[in-house]
Amino acid sequence: MSDTAVVASPPVRTTSGRPVRRSRTGWTAVLLTSLAIGGFSLYTYASADLRALADDGAGLAGTYVDAPLPVRVAFFVHVALGSLALLLGPWQFSQRLRRRWPVAHRSVGVVYLLTVGVAAVSALVMLPFNQARMVGFFGFGAVALLWAFTAWRGFDTARRRDLRQHQAWMIRNYALTFAAVTLRSWVGVLLAVQLPFAGPDADPDLLFETAYAAVPFLSWLPNVIVAEWLIRRRDLPSFRLVDRTPDQGVSRAS
After folding, report:
1. pLDDT at residue 17, rounded to an integer
2. Domain containing 139: what range?
3. Residue 105 lies in a domain
4. Checking DSSP bridges between strand 248-250 and strand 19-22, what pairing results, if any?
5. How far from 11 is each of 6, 20, 140, 218, CA to CA, in Å?
6. Burial 113-137 (b: 16+ CB within 10 A, else e)
7. Helix (H) or strand (E) holding 19
8. Would you say residue 253 lies in a domain?
9. Percent of the chain predicted with pLDDT > 90
10. Which of 119, 178, 231, 244 is a good FRET partner for 82, with 20 to 30 A between their CA atoms?
């Protein structure tokens, strides 16, 4: 896989002629937050069985503890492989890894895409039991399908050696993987917004449910917008519903 724009490299020029300086700052922030959330999730759900975790109020264990066995299995698969994808993804955007150890880059990339594919399927199995109910069914269902689709496009463009398209699709894909981080961030923000108006007798569970109801879409839609901005800023092939050329009007979808 290719490098994203958050990795340090010499300045490049966009089609507008303006230089774009790439910095390690963004990549480091993504790496550290991904390591924190991915590592914490793996540690939490590996520390006890689902019933014990639900009794302790850990994460979403209470949501799935009484679900049918296939759904509980899908939940653990999703947590494990989704966390692994979160941990592996940032390294795929390292120019140093790609240039010095291209075989390692490709091998880690294959593992990453496989984990994303299986984690996306397991997310679809979990949908009818999600905590956000109907909003979650559509919001989390949409991101699971897009997660799998962008992973396939990333693999297909790499297989065809279309590296610029590959880079663009992998930026989109990891933006969706990073929803695991932004989901938790938005929950914290939405809880904080409610607290000044909640009063001393506020129900913490109700506050959490109110905050969580917004994240099935909020956790990933802004990520997709930022990803597309990064893609266009670096003059990579951006997504357009239609192409407009100077000598003709609306033409083909891209």
Report:
1. 44
2. 22-238
3. yes
4. unpaired
5. 12, 5, 37, 33
6. bebbbbbbbbbebbbebbbbeeebe
7. strand 19-22
8. no
9. 60
10. 231
Q: Among 18-27, 110-119, 196-205, 241-250, whose mean pLDDT is lowest? A: 241-250
Residues contacting 83, CB < 8 A, separation 6+: 37, 38, 39, 41, 42, 180
The domain total for the chain is: 1
- Tell me the two tokens of residue 75: 């939940």
pLDDT of residue 97: 82
Residue 103 lies in a domain: yes
What is the rounded distance in angstroms from the CA atom of residue 19 to the CA atom of residue 47? Answer: 48
Across the range 156-177, mean pLDDT stands at 94
In a domain, 37, yes or no: yes
CA 76 to chain centre: 18
DSSP secondary structure code for residue 91 in this structure: G
| Residue appearing with tokens 């989390």 | 140
Distance, CA of 122 to CA of 30 (rounded, Å): 24
Whether the predicted pLDDT of 26 surpasses 90 = no
| pTM of this prediction exceeds 0.85 | no
State yes or no: pLDDT of 18 exceeds 60.
Answer: no
Please state the φ and ψ torsions of residue 19, each to the nearest 5 degrees. Answer: -70, 145
Tens digits of per-residue pLDDT, 43-74? 999 988 899 999 988 888 889 999 999 999 99
The pLDDT assigned to 199 comes to 78
CATH of the domain at 232: 1.20.120
Cα of 120 vs its chain's centroid, Å: 11
Contact 250, 244 (CB under 8 A): yes
